[in-house]
Structure formats: C-alpha cells, structure tokens
Amino acid sequence: MQIKAPPNFVPDDSRARQIHAPPVHARYRKFDLYRNVQQFYYIDNHAIQVAQTEHDNFTDLIYHLVYSQNLQADLDKCRVIFRWMTSKNMYTINFRDGSKPNSPEEVLLSFKNKQGTYARIFETLCRFAGVHSIVLTGFAKGLDYRPGDKFKGNEYNHSWNAVLIDNNWYLVDSHWATRYLVSEKNMPENLVYEYDDFYFLTDPEQLIYSHWAHKKEWQLLHQPIALADFENLPLVKSYFFKCGMFFISHHNGVVDAQKGRLALTLGFCKPTNFTYKITFADTGEEMYQGQKLKSYALQHQGQNQTSTFVFRAPKAGQYYFTIFGQLLTGELGVKNIFTASAEYKVIVDKASSDAGPLPACSDSSWGPGVAVDQLGLVANPPDGIITTEDGTVNLEFAKTKPAYVLCKLRSNGDRDEDLERYIAEIDEGDVIKVKADLPKKGEYGIEVYGNDPAKDGDTYTHICQYYVHFAPKSEQDAAFYNESPERRGLAPGQTATAQHPGNYKGGSAGVDNGYEDEEFPPPPPELLQQQYLYGTMPDSRQTAVHTNLAHPQGQAYGTYAPGVGQTDIAKPQKAQITNIPISTQPIEVEKRSVGQEGEAAPSSFKLQPKSGQENEPTPAPAPAGTQQKPSLEAIDRNVLQSVDDHAIQVSKSEHNNFRDLVWDLIYSKNITNELEKVRVIFRWLATKNLKEMNFDKVEKGSPEEVLMGLKTGQTTYAMVFDTMCNYAGLHSKIIPGYAKGADYRPGQKFQPGTNQHSWNAVYIYGTWCLIDAHWAARRIIGKQSTTEDFHYQLDEYFFLPDPHQLIYTHFPDESQWQLLERCATLHEFESMPHMKPQFFKYGLEFVTHRTGVIRSRGDLHIRLRYQADKIAVAFNFTIQFEDGNEEYAGVKLNRYGLQESSGRIASFSLRLPVEGSYILYIYAKEDTPENKDNVYAQVCEYKIEQEVVPSPAPEPYPPCSYLNWGAGSAFYRYNLSTYQQTATLNTREGKVELQIKVPCNMQFMAKLKSNKMSDTELEGYVLHRTVGNTAYFNVSCPGRGEYGLEIYANNPEKEGSTLYHVAQYLVLCHEDVKVEPLPTLPHGYLGKQQRFDEFGLSCVSHVDPVVHLDVNTVTIAMKTSAPMRVTANLIAVETDEEYPDFVFSNCLGNQISFIVNMPAAGYYKLQIYAMPQADPSQQLPGVFNYLINCRALTQAVFPFPKQYAQWKEGCFMYEPGLIPTNRGPHAAQANLASLPSQVNFRVSIPKAQAVAVVAGQNWTHLDRIQGDEWAKVVDVGGLYGQGVKVTLNANFGGDKTSYSTLLEYML
Which residues form the Transglutaminase-like domain (predicted)? Predict the structure, then answer.
C-alpha cells in the first residue's frame, strides 16, 4: 500500500550541509557495525514491502521508504535504501506523476532507459534521506572478466558508491548485490533478483579484488594500488570471503608453472570443502585426450587449515584454474553448495615430465578430512600423499567410537577386481590397520569407505582417499607433488613463489605493514582471515580519541566530529612551542598534622599577579594542534608523587593570609615548572577542606575574599583556581558555560540560567589546557569520624582532559574556549550522548548511536568498542522507564536486554516491551582478578523513544543469572576456549551442540532456562559430558522458542564441589519440534569418574559416554595398565530397574570388554566399577558411566550367566557367551525344542590348574588348549526349561577336589 507524504513534507537534502570527512579508511569495519543481517529484520522487511509498491512521485517514495519509519541512524537509512534497491525490479519502476528534467524521478527511471546506473540512483536516494553519498567510477572484474585481462584506458566499466555513515566512508555496490545472472548473456530477461549482503559496507581490503576506483583516494585503502596491480590480483568472488578464505602462495591472477608444475595454496578459517575446475584458456575445453584436465591436479588438505592444489600440466599453454568452495557451517544466507570462489590464469612453459592423469578415484580431494572426523576416526598418516620404495603401504585409523572401514586399490590401466588381493584391513578393536602390498611400481589411489554401525546398516560411504607413489627415492624426489609446501617442509606463510607487483603487499591489500606485530593483538578467532587481508593494520583505537568520536547521527543538521578540520575557516594561529621541560628532582616534603600552622612567607616575598603585567598579554585561545600537549606523563613519577604529597601536607595547614599560602604551596619549594605549578594548585584545591579555611584579615576585592567565598557560595572553584594561577605567574581564564551535571538527562535542552557551571583554561608552556577542579574534587570518601579521615577523592580525568572529550559534558559560552579545530554548536552539544569520565578511562568508543536520544522501532542494537588489548573490561546495564520505574508487568526491564562482548565490541541488544520513553544506563569495570571489589561505574546514558513495538509484543530474555551473555570472565580465567564466537546458538531440528576446549580435568554443570518452563521441567533437555579435552553440551529444545543455557564449572582438584558461572548462551529454536527429553543425570555423572585416570584406565571403543544405538546390543572396550577387578550394572532410566545380568565383563591381557544387551528400547545407564587386583578392598569404586540410547529392539536377548568375583579378575570367554533359556523378558521367544543339545565352551582363566563345567549333576572337564585357554563341548540336552544350573568352575591349585564357581547359568 502506498503511503503518501504529508502536504508540507520536504526531504532533507544532504547537499545543503557541508561535510568535513576526507576519503580515508573507516575507523570501523563492517563486522564492528553488525554481525548478523537479522539486526535489520524490520528495516529489510519494510524495504521489501515498499519495493512492491508503486508511488506517484519521488517525494512519496522517499517519505514512505525512509521518513515514515522515522529512521535516524545513517546506517539504518543506508540499509533501507540498499534493500529497496536489491528488491526492486529497476526495469519496471514507474511514477504515476511522470518525471521532469533533472528531477530525482528522472534519475530513478534512467536505468530502465539504459541511461543511468544503480550507483546514481543509490546516491540520489541517500541524498534525499540526508546521507552523504558519492558515485565512484572505475574498473570492476565482472562476469566476463578472466584473470590476465587488461582494462582499456579511461573506459571505466562500472560505478558504485561511497557512503558516509557517522563520519566514516564505507563502500556499497547495490548493483552487484542484486545481480545474479542465470545465463552468461547479460540480458535483462535473464536477471534473477536476489541480494548479496557482501556488497553492503564491504571492507575496502576485500572490495579491491574486484573494484578499482580511478580516484585512488576513494579506494579507501591505507596504500592505494595502481591499475596494473589491480589487474594482477587473483579473481575472487564474494563467496571467497564468506568462507573466510585467504591467499597464501600466489597473490597474482596470472601465475607461471615452472617446468609444467604449479602448487597453489589457500587458507581458510571456516570449515570448508573445496573442489576445482581446469580449462584451456583459448577454447574453454575441460578435456585433454579423453581425460578431464582436472585429473592432472592433486588437491590435498594441509595443516593449519590450508588447501593446496598441485598441477602437472599435460602440455604447454594457458589454462584457467577455478577453485570452488562449500561452506559447512550452515550459516544463514550462505549457500551450502560448491560456489566459484577464486580463479587463476596459469601459463605453462612445457609439459610436466611426469604429466598424466591421477589414479581414478571418487573425490577430487586427497587425504583425510571432515568425513573421517565425523566417523570418529583419527587417520595416520594425516597427509594424503604417501610414498613407498618397496611397495608396502600401512594406514591406521584409530577409533573414538565404533566404526568399520573398507578399502579399495585403484590404478589406471588395472581392473579394480584384480587389485583387491593386494589390500586388506585388520580390525584390532581400538584401531583399524590397512596394509597394501603393491604389485608393481607406479601411481595408485587407495579409496577408504566408512560405516557407522549405529546408523549406516550395511552401507559404506566414501570418507577419504590417498595418493600412493611406488617408485625409487630419486624418482620420488623429482615428482610433481613435491611442489606442495608440506612436502618441501615450509610453513604455509613461507610458500610465496610469485613476486607481488609493485608496492602491493600480498595478502594485505594495500595496508601498510610497517608496524611491529606485537603492537596489535590478533583479531578474534572467527576473523583470522582479517590477518591476511589487513596485515598488521594500525588499530585505530590506539590513535587519538578525537579522530572520530563526538558526532550525533540521523539528525537534520551537520554531523559534528571534533578534531576533523574545517577547510572553509582559517585555522587560528597556533602558539610557537618548545618541548615541555621535565624536572627530575623531587620536592623535600615535611609531614604535617591537621591544623598545623603553615610556613609564613619571608618579608622579602612579594605577590605579583600575572594579569597585571602589561608586557605579557594573555595569549589568544587556540587548539593544541600537533605539538606536545602537557599531561601527567610529562612529569617524572617521583616528582609528581612529591608535588602531590606536598599539596596534601599544605592542605592540612592553616595560613594567616593568602600571601603565606602561596609562598608555602609554591615558592617555598621553588616550584618553577609551569606544569608542576598547575598540578600543586589543582591538588591542593581538590584536597583542602574548604569549610574550615580561615584568614586573619579579609579585605574586599582581595584574594582572601575569593577563597573565603567558597564557604558561602559567593565564589566558585574556577574563580579560586584562576586567582591562585594568577599569583603563581600563570595565564588563566575562567570559562563559564553549560555542563551536563548529575541531574542532566539525555535530550535535555539548555536554557540561560540553568545548568550553569564554570571551569578553567590555563596556559602551560604555550598550550591552553582545560581543568575542572570542582568536578575533580566533588566526591567524598571515608567516614567523617575525625578530621584526619576526611578527604576528597580526586577524579584525575578533570586534570588536563582532552578538549575533544570534555566537549561531551562542558559547553563554553564563548566557542573559542572549546579549544577545538571545529567548534560544536549548542544543538550538537545537546544531542551528544551523556558520557562519564570512565568512558574515556576505559578507552571506549561509540560504534553506533552517537546521539543521546535514540528513536527505536523494533529491536535496538547499541555497540561500543573497547580496548581489549589495553585493559579487560566487563559491562553491565540497567533499563528503566523515564519516570524511574524499573519493571513492566512485574518483570524487571533489564530482562528485555542482552549484553555480549566479542571481538572488542560490546553490544547491547534491547527489545523493549511497550512504546514509551526509557533510560538506558551502561556501566563498565576493569575485569581482572586483582580488582575483585572493583564495582561497575556508569560510562554513558541514553534516552530511548520506543516508537513501534512489534506484534506480538517482545518477551523478556530467558531468566538467566546474568545480563552478560556468551563467555564470561571466569571462562577465560579457566583457560577455556570455544569456536562459538557469539552468544546465540541456533538449533537444527530442535537440537544444538556447544563444544568447549578444556585445558585440564574440569567439572561442569549445565542448566536450561525458559520463560515458559521451570528449571525442573527443563532438566531432561540438556546433557553434558567431557570427551578427551572437549566438553560437549547438547541441548534438545522441547519446542519453538528461546532458551538460556547456563554453564558452571570448576577445577575439582583446587575448588572442591563449588561450581562457578562461566558462560551463558541464548538458544534459538525457530522450528516446531517434538523432542523427547533426555534423562536427568547429576552433574559430573557421565564419563570418567575421579579414579579412572588414577587406575590407569583408558577407553578403547567408546570415548564418548553417550552412545546412540539402532540395535540393542553393544560391546564396550577399555584398556588397563595393571590387572583389575571389574564389574558393571545396567539400569533402565525410566523405571530405575537394574539389569546386572544383561552385562557381561571379559578380560583378556590388558583389555576389558563389556557386552551389554538391552532387553527393551529406551535409555539405560551403564555403570562400570573397578579396583586393581593388588588392592584387597572389596569395595569397587565407580570409574566410568555411560548413557545408552537404545532406539530399537532388533534381537531377542537373554540373561548372561551370574559372574562370581574370581571371574572378574582377568577371565575371558570366547564362547558360548550366553545360553538361550526361558528366563528373562524374551523367554517366550525361546523355542526349547530347537536349542542345541551341545554347547562349546572356550574360556581363558589365568592361574587355573583345572577347569570343569557342571551341568546338573554331570561334570565335564575342559581340556587345556594353550596357556590359560581351556575348551570342550558340554552336553546340555534335556536340561532346558528344567531350572537346572550350569556352572563354570576352576581349581587354582592346592586341594585338587576344591573348585571355585566362576559363572552360573540357569537353564
């Protein structure tokens, strides 16, 4: 539905305002501004709806698109325009009122007339949305571009935009974001309108691979590149960056294959599969002599997430080598199919000496990868290339869970069936060994197929393949695969074989790498790609705060950025400065008691006010500029301490008159350094208890009157400070103006006579500096029980604050005393956020929302950046209605907010429940173990006008313990780590798994929280266990909705049983699912228990304590380091019924196995107990607990024989295991008539002298086969169903008639 603009509506025209933003690299990158397109959910949906509507004229369109939503932020305005353009069919756009020459309507209609561009349309829409944008022209590597192509002269083939968002320039290509071509013909009828978020605010380091602006400054790179360098870059697509890929070996689009060989290496930082295509450059053909050119290259995974492609060309010539990626993370908006990512042109000088197609195997990638990991196998060797001189090949696959492997040998020219006898697999329980004896020299492929018995049935799936070269050492050394960096023994970063053109630094896209690595910390884990793209780019947060801090957004007036020069105004003359002198000799300080008389001035001392000296006029105010600025850092530490201590001691003394005070404070110690003079006055004034100050004589107009006036409120701190500076020989100025004090609220307007305040400027070695002694001394610490205890806490921030920071709270009546290159207006001052000194103390910056009042529709995301490399900062917040009420419908408003910190960005996500006015207070604190009692301090404050609340109204976030989500500070104190970089987990089919790497033995507990279910009801929907050095947390959501996952942990060796909150995550389930709850288990129940490692036990078959089965029997194996006594119990979770006789333990050598039969489908707990045989204790402690999910009953099972103590001391049964009977839950399925009359017994019993089976009254003595092994056939005919016992017995020496019962069957 079209929304008409109001009759008097005039859109804001950005050209009506001057801007002061030179084209330089933005202070923030795209991922700083937003990390998930869901942030723009309402904006995007609105843009799409507007795109489906025709409008009478441009004014109606821009009003409907931007102004009807009251969008304030530049980012939001740009986004809504971008999404409108990527949703609108520009070939069908129409205005009912038509278009006039040079009108916006003419610009928008020009595209379908083939006379305009997307960039011009985007610029026009931005202009009338009040956002500055310009059209950039240059060359782009479009659909028909191939590596090596040259661009002609000035015939620029594309245009895109730079857009100014909060005084930072960003790049946008709305055309490429829209245009997906179905065919290679660039025709309108073949266009498919999707959108690619990559081209919205694309980082310059990424866009330079495809877009070259002819005006070099608009490349927005720290080092712009020449056209020749641009042409030489590899051709990359947006998918390249979505996979987190980066170049390692070759950073040129055209590469030479020396002697017919080439190895290309790429890195990637997200789980990615790769494949490739090779074609002849001149014909586009993929085939050569009946073989795909692809078969002449070998792709294999390297270490540290690299992939190498080794090409041995069959003939000289030119080829295109295209690499495709497939992201495996399932990210929203990223296609899970192989997509073209990068392309090279390869120039081959001659055919490779060993050119030929590789052995024909199923895949294009060689070596173990993701599929092997998913099957729970660890492959050795990990490299996909194997060499052998004698034809023998050995592979090993260690199991972390049950799995089967099948291998096939391949060789070009040989039939597969003829090669079968040369390869075999041997399953040794915990490891599968593969051995191949190759029949003749040559190249072979070994294809490996895997089977997961829990789910695959009889199906085997290709999981990996190996390339094998059987040849003499000399031939191996000369083989093509040695081009690979791993074969040459190089680290991936050392593999560059091509020179980078010109000054262009490979992998850093025009970024100056002239900085020491240690200056800047590495980026967060998910942004490893940035290291290669941006190099060690200077961290903008370490530059002066004023480069881009104070400017509100989304208003109809010019954005204000303190510190950005204004070209149309002559800059004030800067004073000529020399360096600030530094004293090195501390003052001698005498300790004083309170009330002690101060040192009187000698009669020769005369007070001389600076203001009265005609030969030294007061210098004009001017910004400090680039000269050295006075600061505490310019004072020697020992000198500073002595100056401060002297000021404090003098503050305890009483003085008869002002002359004595000035002498005692300054001249008695011969303080001549201007900075030290200012400091001692400031420190005295901020420390002195002014209520008890008295002078013998106070004359009208005297300095004494000024100081005494503080007691009565007749004078101000600024007047006192000015007076003392004047008599200390310093130029000083009282600055009256407005200040945002304790009673200020964001959005408040300043009226004459209200919020009046005064502070000072003081001239120190040629630079005007600012001081607010009143605000520095306003807080009192300690109890006033005695005068000794009374003192003011000093707020150092107000001693020489940066004018670019003080402008947020102090607005002088005379603008020149802002001491800024460009002065702020009162309107701009009123619009700035309300910030506290701690904001600057912690080095914070606004990434979004630079106005004190935010108008919000739907969800709101506020982002600050913090200096993680400088100081660990923790954040908190409170939300309240403007009237002070902190609750809505009985729920704390804080519950409608979520704070998370990641990648140096602190984000505050709010979804407020009802329309109205709110106040958001943001707090921060230094988060280090040393500052345990460090409380949160307020850093800034916003007023939020919530104009639209979605329907249904938002719910509070799940009721978790903290407002901070994601990994907490304790998480890092325990040295835990995770690949999960955000606080949000999205489910698939209602389930999600979180993995946390654990550095040592840790205990964990997990809780699930929901607004709709109690903690008790949710207990069965979260399960955790530790496998090796990884803790797994599995959540199965009971239904659609939001859940909080709280994780607690401790180090049991140091902290006993108390667990501490380490992290909490928001689990989003957007699916209608029906999930059965998992069993509720005590924390720490699953997996190995306290004495497992102590006893030297290790898992062989099932490392993971959660076992899912599609059958009702499983064998679990463990290894021992010493002889053990073991037993086990099986418990049905639902009924708590015990089934000890459905578990059978076997010991053979150093391996113990437990055969477990489940009598029905469902969940079971398997509890394993053990004790070394050398320990006489009869109590066997629990050592490992499993949870078994038996999903199907596939066979009838019967009770195992009863196992007596001596059986559990190292005995093993080969057969019969169990004997079917008419006992147990499946007794009815036992057909007694068909059961065998004879049963073969074969057992291993250490130290036995004789072994016998007693069936009823009949004894059958078993024969010793070898060692401890005994066997014989036992007659049981006629005993079935009679309730007869069949026992296995052994004599262990001594009395030959004495037998111990080991096993007991009941027939």
Answer: 110-176, 707-775
CB-based contacts of 144, cutoff 8 Å, min separation 6: 184, 186
Nearest to 1023 by CA among 1099, 1084, 1065: 1084
Displacement of CA 362 from its chain's centroid (Å): 36
Tell me, what DSSP letter sits at residue 478? T
Q: Among candidates 376, 58, 229, which has minimal Cα distance to 1101? A: 376
Q: What angle do CA 29, 30, 34 make, to 5 degrees?
A: 125
Please give the full DSSP string across 1057-1077, using - where no structure is assigned.
T--EEEEEEEEEE-S----PP
Place of tokens 């877009």: 211
Cα–Cα distance between 454 and 1191 in angstroms, integer? 10
Q: Please give the backbone phi and psi of residue 235, each rounded to the nearest 5 degrees, phi first.
A: -80, 120
Cis amide leading into 1216 (omega within 30): yes
User: How many Cβ atoms sit within 10 Å of the Cβ of residue 572?
Assistant: 14
As a whole number of angstroms, the distance between CA 1139 and CA 1133 comes to: 11
Which tokens is 754 given?
């209200």
Question: Quick check: 1070 and 984 in contact, CB under 8 A?
Answer: no
291, two tokens: 């073989």
Closest listed residue to residue 166, CA positions, set 942, 833, 830, 739: 833
Whether 1030 contacts 1103, CB under 8 Å = no
Q: What is the pLDDT of residue 1300?
A: 93
Angstrom distance (rounded) from CA 869 to CA 58: 49
Per-residue confidence (pLDDT) for residue 34, from 0 to 100: 87
Q: What is the DSSP string of 841-906?
A: HTT-EESS--SSEEEEES-EEEEEE--TTT--EEEEEEEEETTS--EETTEEGGGGEEEEEETTEE
> Strand, helix or coil at 1025?
strand
Range 344-356 burial, b when 16+ CB lie within 10 A, else e: bbbbbeebbebbe
Pairing of strands 897-902, 905-910: antiparallel
Residues forming a β-bridge with 398: 378, 431
On whether the CB atoms of residues 233 and 251 are closer than 8 A, the answer is: yes
* Residue 1032: HSE in the Cβ half-sphere, 13 Å Cα cutoff: 15
Burial class, 681, CB count within 10 angstroms (exposed 0-12 / middle 13-18 / buried 19+): buried
State residue 492's pLDDT score. Answer: 38
Q: How far is CA 702 from CA 609, 618, 850, 1258, in A?
A: 12, 21, 46, 126
AA letter at 1139: Y
Query: Are the CB atoms for 1212 and 1243 separated by under 8 Å?
Result: yes
Residue 415: CB atoms within 10 Å: 8
Looking at the DSSP assignment, which residues form a beta bridge with residue 1088? 1184
* Residue with tokens 């001057």, as numbered in its chain: 18
Q: Which two tokens stand for residue 550?
A: 């104070």
The model's pTM: 0.71
Residues across the chain: 1307
Q: Is there a cis peptide before residue 952, judged by omega within 30 degrees of 0?
A: yes
Average pLDDT over residues 91-99: 87
Handedness of CA 269, 270, 272, 278 (dihedral sign): negative
Check residue 82 and give its pLDDT: 96
Cβ neighbours for 352, distance < 8 A, ≥ 6 positions apart: 257, 259, 260, 261, 312, 313, 314, 480
Tokens linked to 684? 């005295």
Give residue-wise pLDDT tens across range 437-457: 999 999 999 999 999 887 788
DSSP class of residue 47 equals H
d(CA 945, CA 575): 46
- Residue 1146 carries which side chain, given as an amino acid letter? N
Taking each helix axis from N to C end, the angle separating 74-87 and 118-127, rounded to the nearest 10 degrees, works out to 140
Closest CA to 1259 of 1301, 1287, 1293: 1287
Question: Where does the pLDDT of residue 1223 fall: very low under 50, low under 70, confident under 90, or very high at 90 and above?
Answer: low
| Interval 1226-1241 mean pLDDT | 76
Residues 6+ apart with CB under 8 A from 1176: none
Helical residues (DSSP H) of 542-673, grouped into ranges:
637-652, 658-665
